[in-house]
């Protein structure tokens, strides 16, 4: 999100498929970050001081602030099907990486930890 925002501030007329993908991925990433934090993580995190201020900025202020900026500045009207397909490449790659990493780090299952239907 920071890269897209800084790039837009430096050159508001910048355009191109890579640029559009970066900006839409920033939007999707910050929205997912905000939703996951609010629904899953917020109750588990107890911070103070600078860490609390950073969390408030990153998870409560940035997601809703980025959306109106994207709606005003775009590049909504220049999104085509190919751009949208590339937008989902990074999230799908991240999900795949996370699943593989989780599988490698998961403790081995014992009979007691297997689901009841698999016993």
Set out the fold topology:
Layout: H1 2-10, H2 17-41, H3 50-73, H4 81-87, H5 89-105
Distance between the termini: 46 Å
**Major pleated sheet:** none
Give the helices and strands as they follow along the chain: HHHHH
| Mean of pLDDT | 80
Number of distinct helices: 5
Oligomer: single chain
> What class do helices, strands and sheet pairing give?
mainly alpha
* CA gyration radius, whole angstroms: 19 Å
Strand content: under 5%
How many structural domains? 1
Measured as a percent range, the helix fraction is 55-70%
Summary tags:
119 residues; single chain
Describe this structure in words.
The protein has 119 residues and is mainly α. The chain contains 5 helices and no strands. The mean pLDDT is 80.
How would you sum up this structure in a few lines?
The protein has five helices and no strands. The protein has 119 residues and is mainly alpha-helical.
């Amino acid at each position: 999100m920071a890269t897209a925002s800084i790039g837009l501030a430096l050159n508001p007329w910048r355009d191109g498929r890579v640029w559009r993908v970066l900006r839409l991925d920033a939007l999707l990433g910050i929205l997912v970050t905000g939703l996951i934090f609010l629904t899953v993580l917020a109750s588990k995190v107890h911070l103070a001081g600078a860490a609390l201020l950073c969390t408030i900025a990153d998870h409560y202020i940035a997601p809703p602030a980025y959306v109106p900026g994207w709606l005003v500045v775009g590049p909504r009207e220049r999104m085509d099907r190919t751009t949208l397909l590339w937008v989902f490449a990074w999230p799908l790659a991240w999900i795949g990486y996370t699943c593989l990493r989780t599988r490698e780090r998961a403790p081995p299952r014992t009979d007691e930890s297997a689901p009841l239907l698999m016993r």
